[in-house]
Amino acid sequence: MAHSYEAQTTLGRIVxxxxxxxxxxxxxxxxxxxFINVVLRYxxxxxxxxxxxxxxxxxxxxxxxxxxxxxxxTAHLGVDALINLFSPSVRRTLSLIAAAVCISYAFLVFKGxxxxxxxxxxxxxxSGRWFPTGFENSRDQxxxxxxxxPMPEWLRWIEPIFNQGEEYEKIxxxxxxxxxxxxxxxxxxxxxxxxxxxxxxxQTSLIVSHEAxxxxxxxxxxxxxx
Length: 226
Known about the structure:
By secondary structure, the chain is mainly alpha-helical. The chain has helices at about 10-45, 50-70, 90-115, 160, 175, 180-200, 210-225; strands spanning about 125, 135, 145-150, 170.
């Protein structure tokens, strides 16, 4: 069953607030930009040229944030019909095996995310096919820009750092793409946290189970009051 996450430390509460605030802001910005573009298009036959691209990036950010957030609150859906046939000890063992697989997968995806993003920021990708064995020279692609989103003036300070002093006309790609390694690192961190909770016995599964039954239980009292 998905549950409300309650952080046990001050740092945990701060991180949780940052995550939930970021998700809310992304949803709000997507809604506002889409609404404004619809009004401009149908009311004034114009529009924000970079609006669609911005919403696309924001949606990708929302997905990457949401994946790790769903792990934290055990909101990912899963089929547990077969698992529930086993005893609690066997189910716990299977859950730990699944957690180990998830950690391995998240680590591999994090490596791939870094290797994809690093050249856009002028950094080196990792060497090694499956696990990083070091860093290797990558083709500097920090000058790559997005298609439509203009470069804001308050970001000009990054030009001497990432673009050898050359001006960006559009936002450099490494900025919106940075969410890819960040999101995968957060996913890996959340899987490690979930595994620790499984080992301690404070959590029984990585997935939400019996969602329909839980929803019925939540509203059963409404029918009883009638």
